[in-house]
Amino acid sequence: METFIIDTDGHTAVHDVTDRVRAAVPADATGTCTVFCEHTTAGLVVNEAERRLLDDIERFVESLAPDEGWAHDELDGNADSHLRALLLGESVTVPVVDGDLALGRWQSVLLVECDGPRTRTVRVLPE
């Protein structure tokens, strides 16, 4: 298992972590790897890393839950971030062939920040 840290740069932001995941996969690996974000206000998805689409993803994620009106907000004001991340999910599984991610032509592994900026920890578990 490999771990890497990413510092996010916005309240809602999408970061392409494909190269970091790829670097964590052993050269002789074949099977799958699970990429896991150990936070409750960020998620992982597989999608295209085209800049305009990343902006669209940020806008879409912000639209998933209103900013205010949640019971958890009485504690720390970020219930919307938890709810958005809940819909994204905390992990993705990617096929691995001969030590490389077997992603489709336009696919990338994206970390979606829902409560930043923050420092996030991501684990890569080749299986």
Descriptive keywords:
five-stranded antiparallel beta sheet; Jelly Rolls; three-stranded antiparallel beta sheet; 127 residues; 36% strand; alpha+beta
- In total, the number of domains comes to 1
Strand content: 35-45%
So what's the CATH class?
A: Mainly Beta
Structural class, judged by helices and strands? alpha+beta
Number of strands: 8
Uncertain stretches = none
Averaging pLDDT over every residue, what do you get?
A: 97
Number of helices: 4
Give the arrangement of secondary structure elements:
Layout: E1 2-7, E2 13-16, H1 18-24, E3 31-37, E4 42-47, H2 51-63, H3 73-76, H4 79-88, E5 91-97, E6 100-101, E7 108-113, E8 119-126
Antiparallel strand pairs: 1-8, 2-7, 3-5, 3-8, 4-7, 5-6
Q: What can you see in these coordinates?
A:
With 127 residues, the protein is α+β, with helices and mostly antiparallel strands. The chain has one domain: YjbQ-like (Jelly Rolls). 27% of the residues lie in helices and 36% in strands. The protein has 4 helices and 8 strands; from the N terminus they run ββαββαααββββ. The strands form 2 sheets. Strands 1-8-3-5-6 form a 5-stranded antiparallel sheet, with helices on one face. A 3-stranded antiparallel sheet has the order 2-7-4, sandwiched between helices. A hairpin with a 2-residue loop joins β5 and β6. The mean pLDDT is 97.
Summarize the structure.
The protein is an alpha+beta fold and 127 residues long. The protein has 4 helices and 8 strands; from the N terminus they run E-E-H-E-E-H-H-H-E-E-E-E. It is elongated.
